[in-house]
Amino acid sequence: MDRETENNAMCSSAQRIFAHNLYEYKKGLRNLVLYTTSSKEQLGIEATLKRLDVVYYIQKVNQTKINVFFGEPQCVEMIRSIGCWSLTELTAEEDFILGIMLGYDRLRQCERYLQRKKNDTNLPGTQG
Predict the structure, then answer these.
(1) Residue 85 within any structural domain of the chain
(2) What residue numbers bound the domain in which 17 lies?
């Protein structure tokens, strides 16, 4: 497969994933969606979300990737209010809330939260 064909396949794959996420939101299966993609897709994604009147927030991950949060206005506003520049900077509580809002398995989110809290208490200078 040549590079152009490979790029077209990746692009169409990314577009299908975005379209599926949008479909799930529009059908009420999700209140909030997190979609990570190439920053090259930002203008097209923004145009689509604006055309469909969907509230969104875009977070730069690095030079080549972005996180696109979209969904119900209250959910997107909450993400904005957290105010972090990277998902790796989230506190255990913020990470838990985000996971629940995104519809991740509750039990696994509880396990993840407890593990993060346990790891936090093992850091020098923290109390457990």
Answers:
(1) no
(2) 3-76
Q: What is the pLDDT of residues 111-121, one digit of tens each?
A: 999 999 998 86
Which amino acid is located at 31 in the chain? N
Closest CA to 112 of 89, 94, 126: 94
Distance CA 84, CA 62 (A): 14
Number of domains the chain contains: 2
- Beta bridge partners, 56, equal 70
- Give CA–CA dist 94/83, Å, rounded: 11
Element (H, E) at 56: strand 55-60
pLDDT tens per residue across span 24-82: 999 999 999 999 999 999 999 999 999 999 999 999 999 999 999 999 999 999 999 88
